[in-house]
Amino acid sequence: MTSLPEKLIGAAAPRPLDAQRSKLPLLLALVVAVGGCVFPFVVTSTLTLSLLTQALIGAMLATGVGFLVRQNGMVSFGHALFYGLGGYILGVLVSRGIVPIELALILAIVVPTVLAFVLGLVITRIPGVAFGMLTLACAQAFYELALKVRGLANGDDGLAVTFPARIFGVPVSLLQDPHSMFVICWVVLMIALGSLWLLMRSHYGLLTFAIKANEERARFIGYETLVPRAAIYAISALLAATAGVLATFYNAFISPDMLHWTLSGSALIMAIIGGTKAVWGPALGAVVFFFIKEIAGDATEHWPAVIGGILIVVTVFVPIGLSGLLVRVFSGRRA
Amino acid sequence: MNATSSQPFALQGLDLSRVYGGFRALDGVAISVPKGEVRGIIGPNGAGKSTLMDVLSGRAASWGGTVRLGGRDIGALSPRERRQAGLARSFQKTNVFAELTIDEQIRLAARSVEIDNSAEVLDKLELTALRSRLAADISYGDRRRLDLALALVGRPQVLLLDEPAAGLTVEESLAMARLLRDLALEWQVTVLLVEHDMEVVFGISNRITVLHLGKVLAEGTPDEIRSNPVVVSAYLGSSVE
Ligand SMILES: Nc1ncnc2c1ncn2[C@@H]1O[C@H](COP(=O)(O)OP(=O)(O)OP(=O)(O)O)[C@@H](O)[C@H]1O
Ligand SMILES: [Mg+2]
Predict the structure, then answer these.
(1) What is the value of ipTM here, to two decimals?
(2) Where are the transmembrane segments (chain A) (predicted)?
(3) Which of A188, A200, A240, B14 is the most buried (most CB within 10 A)?
(4) A225-264 as b/e, with b when 16 or more CB fall inside 10 Å?
């Protein structure tokens, strides 16, 4: 059972992950990343691709929520705020023709990120459930705003967004066709996951992880802890805003639903089902979530109950989530 | 003390007070420690020893009073700034990063200071062989040494140690005492050592401060403290003759 490297290292066994650290996971990641891009050429069903595109957008949002859990240990019940805000900024600015679409896109991503950073400087000081409630309250405030201020985007009715023909020279129609949009969302998601993975392995990743593990000691070894916490919150908001932007392009429609707490809740459920220890866990959870929703939704209108049941099973029996389970199975590690 | 009165003390706390719900945990304490000295701090449970460490290190704010590090007023600085100014501490309750490997946390500690002596610290504290292990997976004694190691990285000028030998075996405590004495000599680091293990304190301290009910009861060389009737009746009893 003892592998050669283990024998060489001897008694002082390294942490299991190090022992398994080979080229294999990286190779696997590459295969998956490339595989996704050719997927629409294999599966040509528009319906399936459309569902998967929605799933990828959900995956982006869930990745943001999960990253916050992993790196800050904080559970957000209000990430729809950044998702919806991204969508609204893009949708409203483009519809009103206030700024060029390229600038609208940049603002739609930058504004929620900066907002999250500033907000994070205040609310990431607050631990536990109180933090979750604050995120929920902030998101609901924006939801009410979108609902009540009809002049903004027709309140409850939502706003159909008419895009100009091109963005950065690329036809916008590509962003609305599931065949091409699937690939675009896939590439964006892969870039996001790759960046997060690199971040996690960097000094800053280690520092934020350490702050999560023991904030007080981090201060006493010479680190300021608030800015790193807020920065992680901002990064997770950046992912959510990106998801909101993709959704707005794809659906050409914005409505207060994009800011509703049920969306934040779904994203959290996806992250929990997928597991947050691996960066790609929440994304996997999102895909599973969408498929369950689709299949169970065909059978019964009570599909949320099915999701709820699965959530209970996962939290009780597989608290490490599906990604944790997969890693365990494939690395041949004992429980 | 006369010899050093013209130059600044390595660490000085003046008129330090702290009240917890009407209870004076620290009541106008003054302490001045010259460079390179190992200062033992003893006193019964609840005397305010940890509170003094907290106030000096910035974990808790003093109600009035001053804290000086090498003559510089650091009373308004955060723990991070105090650490970067050369004041490091360990904790009475082991305070390490359970989810990080020893190597990772030592590396992190080294990044925030100017001198990277992590290899030396790991070596001195006999943690080198454990460096790739998670702190959660090592023994209690190893974790105590890791706690100390996190404070030693960067060769701080002043070390505040809150019962580093708590829970260690007699052998381990004595090894720790030897290590601290060597460090004080070798690095010229100033040490404030809170410790219940009298053998350790009396063995390595140049001077000892006795706290009682938040006040300084006595201060002097180990011999003076041992024979001080007030200290003996209030604290030492017959445990040290
Ligand atoms: N955070 C706190 N809140 C309330 N009371 C506190 C707090 N910290 C300390 N105290 C009280 O202040 C007094 C001094 O506590 P401190 O921890 O400084 O004592 P100590 O000398 O370190 O004792 P020990 O030898 O048990 O470690 C105690 O009565 C304690 O109950
Ligand atoms: Mg104490």
Answers:
(1) 0.89
(2) 24-43, 49-69, 81-99, 105-124, 181-200, 230-253, 265-292, 304-327
(3) A240
(4) beebbbbbbbbbbbbbbbbbbbbbbbbbbbbbbbbbbebb
